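Workshop exercise sheet. Pairs work together: one partner reads the sequence aloud, the other fills in the structure field after running the prediction. Swap roles for the next sheet.
Pair: D.N. / O.F.
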Amino acid sequence: MTNELTPKFNPTEVEAGRYEKWLEADVFKPSGNPDAEPYSIVIPPPNVTGKLHLGHAWDTTLQDIIIRQKRMQGFDTLWLPGIGHAGIATQAKVAARLAEDGILPQDLGREKFLDKVWEWKDEYATTIKEQWGKMGISVDYSRERFTLDEGLSQAVRKVFVQLYNKGWIYRGEKLINWDPKAMTALSDIEVIHKEIDGAFYHITYQIEGSDEFVEIATTRPETFLGDTAVIVNEKDERYKHLVGKNVILPIINRVIPILTDDHADMEKGTGVVKITPAHDPNDFEVAMRHDLPMINMMNNDGTINENGGKYEGLDRFEARKQIVADLKELGQLIDIKPVRHEVGHSERTGVVVEPRLSTQWFVKMDELAKNAIANQTTEDAVEFYPPRFNDTFMQWMENVHDWVISRQLWWGHQIPAWYNEAGEMYVGEEAPEGEGWTQDEDVLDTWFSSALWPFSTMGWPDENSADFKRYFPTSTLVTGYDIIFFWVSRMIFQSLEFTGKSPFHNVLIHGLIRDEEGRKMSKSLGNGIDPMDVIEKYGADALRWFLSNGSAPGQDVRFSYDKMDAAWNFINKIWNVSRYILMNAEDVSADAVSSALTKVANKTAGNVTDRWILTRLNDTARRVTEQMDKFEFGVAGHILYNFIWDEFANWYLELTKEVMFGEDEAEKDITRAVLLHVLDQVLRLLHPIMPFFTEEIFEKLPNTSGSIVVAEYPKVRPEFNDDKASEGVAMLIELITAVRNIRAEVNTPLSKAVPMLIKSEHADFLNAVSPYISRFTNPSELTIAKDLAVPEQAMSAVITGAELYLPLAGLINIEEEIARLEKELAKWQKELDLVNKKLGNERFVANAKAEVVQKEKDKLADYQEKFDTVKARIAELKEN
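Structure field:
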């Protein structure tokens, strides 16, 4: 049989070659339909330093879910892929690879070293694209971009020059964060503050011309080599007599003044503060106020320079040890107190960052930040999901500092500034004419080019570019909360400045993936998970299901192999359901399905279970779509799971066996058609989340054609809604479940027939569906009536719309049955209390939708009826 599925779902077989088929069919490209609403996403570019990690897998999964659904809904979708050059990280990786062969970058020189980096880029870009394929992401590779593409480079130069000409980019000497390993400047957000064990070193400085000393405390004693003053608070009576005098720095014997400044806190430490302007941001501000000299005592690699006297050439931490020993020998180290404190580390290399005076290029942030803040009060505001991250964004923009954008690297966008021997500087998009000009050797911060990503990838600065006009601003960005400052904020203020528009309408923020113990995944802990290893074992669909259902927007998620097992089991369940349906409906045509559905909708054919499942399908499609539109993928997945596993597989499929094993061929045809239709719609609803196996099954359905990638997404079909059928089958299911529970309580297997009585106002309906009741409860006698005598010795259950009695004389213990019913009574009392509390809340009643309030009132009536019935039954048993 051509449409036969294997007995067991095998992800390796299902996913092999599928992605290549999609690419060959060009199903991922925009439709080009001018009447369709455009929907665009640009992928957050992973860098070329290595393989994708789970965080990238999460990004791409959520974006792919969005774009696949929008494509199926008829939008003109563009998902533009790309890769970032990641200056510091990539240069460090390539340098490390060369070091294995004993080669330093300096041995090769800039051009030859960059050749090696481009080789690295080609190698790892290929790896990343292969991994994207394994993830199944539906990007348009004909538009793929790289942050060092010529088109993007042109955009970078244009932005730099325009900001420079406005006075918003400048070159100056300021205190910056310095990475001694990468030997480059870092921006504030590239510094990670970690708690480490350190110490306060208490040192005495001698007053010049006196035997008196002052005591200072520092966590970095080596920086005293760059001290240019000590300060006290002018209100501090302890030191008023010393103001205007000098102290002598120990060992190096440099004389520096004692000044007053409010930065000195009388209540903190000794009240005397050493000032090292070239190596501390607060000290830098003090030096600016007092016009103090600024002495840099450190080389680019973190060793002490010529200003360090006898410590010249020592590593900063080795110098610390030597200085502490020397101070101790001089008797000027009086105490060492252990302290646990936060110290800045390089986000890229992991080494301790050194605050250091340096000449760099900066972006003035005041006007750019002001524009971004103001925009969030307009119709063009970026919508954050969850909304609380708007506050995160705003707080950062309100407190942002000037952005240091120069990096002392070779890999990246070289700064478009040139110098000549006359001391002149030229800034332009192209090199200046004439001889004698040398380009600035520094490159721009990676985030400078990434900030332009949403519009530079669309053809800007050519504002007449077809893609720029059609797909910018982009629709949605998906990213982790850890790069709101790095990237999201910068895209917003640069886009507003250069296009006059926000770069995207929505920003969906997800959390971090942690291990099963809740720890952040890291190399040091050895708890990292390679998504490719997970795919190898479980398949991409199972991983995507886990990633989309793991948490709510903005929340972290814990990776769990138990959850991966559950995801695989869910897929296998659908696989088996599909096998059953295909084996029983392999020859049903699309026309036959359409005709059968029309008859069911018109109630000229089909049974109540068919109308019930189509109603439930409608409700599921509506709710899933609503949740997907809100980016609540976990909620959407939960709705889908419950419908597929419980209502469709566990109930409807079982209920259809009453028809499929019967004699009525016409009724069988209707049921086959409904089964095929529901399966078809389930596959379409699941496809954005789990694309591979849904396509595999979809193409085997006898009534479909083409790829599910471009199939129409399910819509609510009002003609299928049948509230009576929905309520009726819900009662049937509740009744069958109640019988099974009672049998289990008295250890009476389903194989043993027992009498059953049902008292209900819906007796006509229940008699009509009695074949289902008999098949699933196995009564020896079945009595259904609006009124009947209640047996004295019987197990009972109250369900919505009916009372159920199983006379089990000899098997029932009256006292135990009363105890069971009293527990049930307590349960209904609890439900009544909850609903009454809600309806008693005036704010809820006043603000909730009318249908929501009515639903609570209906619950109240239902629970009250069940409570009263159970209470009456308890009274009857006690009387007898």
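Discussion prompt: The chain has a mean pLDDT of 91. What would you look at next?
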